[in-house]
Predict the structure.
Amino acid sequence: MNKEEKIKQLNEEISIKLEKVDDLKMLNELKIEYLSKNGPVSQLSSFMKDLDNEEKKEYGKLLNELKNNINEKFETIKKKLEDEELNKKLESEKIDITLPSKKTVRGSEHPLNRTIEEIEDLFVSMGYEVVEGPELETDEFCFERLNLPKGHPARDMQDSFYITDEYVLRAQTSAVQARTMLKYGGTKPIKMICIGKTYRREDDATHSHQFNQVEGLVIDKKENKISLADLKGTLEVFMKKMLGENTQLRFRPSYFPFTEPSYEVDCTCFKCGGKGCNLCKQTGWIEVLGSGIVHPNVLRMNGYDPEVWGGFAFGTGIDRLAMFKYGIPDMRYLYTNDVRFLKQFDRKDID
């Protein structure tokens, strides 16, 4: 048998075996058998050294045609087998997207955010503007423009975090009131609330160094007679909305540098309804607010003539309000990010 006949015979032999291949493993074994370094196709190449130049040319052409033909057949069958395998896999792993989905875990709104949004909605409905301000304040706006000059003993009530001699983490959101008064330049009435974080250095384990606060300010011309009665009525609406319609308020004279006269405001204990319990220390009352008529010095320092303008201000801690509203026994629950605690609030209905 001459070399050309051997090439033809080998081509037919491989073609017959390829027709019987039914998986990729068998195809790969066949490829190694015939196309490896010691396979029959490579052995045919060894005859080239015994041929003259003209024979080499003709023989090399036939040998290349064989190799190309075999490789083409291998690739065609390989693609066919891979497609079949992929289709089988897709069929076996088919997903019915019409089936009901698994129940997803739903998050819930944080009780502090719930309380803040409820406060904002209430005061916006009463015509108030919600104003924001910086948490890092100057000593001027945090104290001096609120009738607390340097060295004033009342500063000791608010042990603060000073960043520099002039910059401090705000101890109350009242600084935003001063900024708003300056913004309006003593020419426009003001009806605003500010909600945000405040910071005080606390040694008492029952208090937090950071808490949320809401403060309100109403300023109008004296001819419109903004009085303590307006303050009382506003706070009654506020507390009854937050703690229930049966909530009663009690005003006690107090001292704040930025209001005169000033009042502490107590509400009937939400737990016992004013009868007396451990929470209210058997008094029936819980302190919730500070309030008063805006001090003339505060008006004057922030551009408003106290002979022409007057008004009231109030403030309360939102963290304690949220605790009263939802019956939370420990303030630390609000900041520990315990999902077991937070997920309870997805069942709370929003009125």
In short: Residues 91 and 98 are 16 Å apart (CA to CA). The radius of gyration is 42 Å. Strands lie at 129-131, 136-138, 167-169, 190-199, 210-221, 249-256, 259-268, 285-294, 309-317.
